[in-house]
Amino acid sequence: MNEKTAYFDSYNARTHTLGRIASAVTLVLLVGAPFVLGVYLGAMPDVGAAARGFLSVGLVWTVSSVAEFLIYTPMLGAGGGYLAFITGNLINMKIPCAMNARDLVGAKTGTPENEVISTLSIATSSLVTILVLALGVLLLVPLQPVLQSEALQPAFANVVPALFGAMAYKYFRGSMKIAAAPLVVMGLLFTLVPALTGSTSFMVIPSGALAIGITWFFYKRGKAEQER
């Protein structure tokens, strides 16, 4: 056990080192791209206008980013977390992929097994995404008549709801008492305030807090019943 713990600590240390370097390089490339293009094309972006634009939406997204980091990192572990945040598309692809892989092998959150499985699953997901995008670019012109077909437009408009509906049902079914209230509350809220559909990442905070509160209530009630 001590040998396993020592090896896992060494693995985590290397993961953090590589993850920090990759994150820094990615950040420099993302932030530096507009300036490089501006210098090359002789059209530098207006930094003041960009700053004002960021302030108008950046505060909301900053809160959302912090919330996603606090929620998803414990689920994914170090390696999976770095890969997921660097490659992006967490909610639509990386999180469902990691959770499904974890359930298939029976790993638990916070264990070394979960770290390895989430890292492998997210890495595989990223490679598959790159492959699919490459094929999509190559086949975009030949398949354009099919993709623009009116019969397929409703399907393209409901890909994300279909994906999350199928994934969510698996987890909701296991604990409907906890899932029912957040589903009803968030469903009513999004129906009454449609503008909130553009802030789904931010709305994870209140819905998650509600689910945690309900779980705590059932836990305390079950514990009280056992003590009687």
Textual characterization of the structure:
- There is one protein chain.
- By secondary structure, the chain is an all-alpha fold.
- The protein is built from nine helices and no strands.
- The model has no long low-confidence stretch (mean pLDDT 83).
How would you briefly describe this protein structure?
With 228 residues, the protein is mainly α. It has nine helices and no strands.
Number of helices: 9
Count of individual beta strands = 0
Unreliable residue runs:
none
* Alpha carbon gyration radius: 22 Å
Structural class: mainly alpha
Q: How large is the share of residues in beta strands?
A: under 5%
Let me know the largest β-sheet.
none
What oligomerization state is this entry in?
A: single chain
**What would the principal axes of the Cα set say about the shape?**
globular
Helix content: over 70%
Average pLDDT level = 83
The N- and C-terminal alpha carbons lie at a distance of 39 Å
Query: From N to C, what is the helix and strand string?
Result: HHHHHHHHH
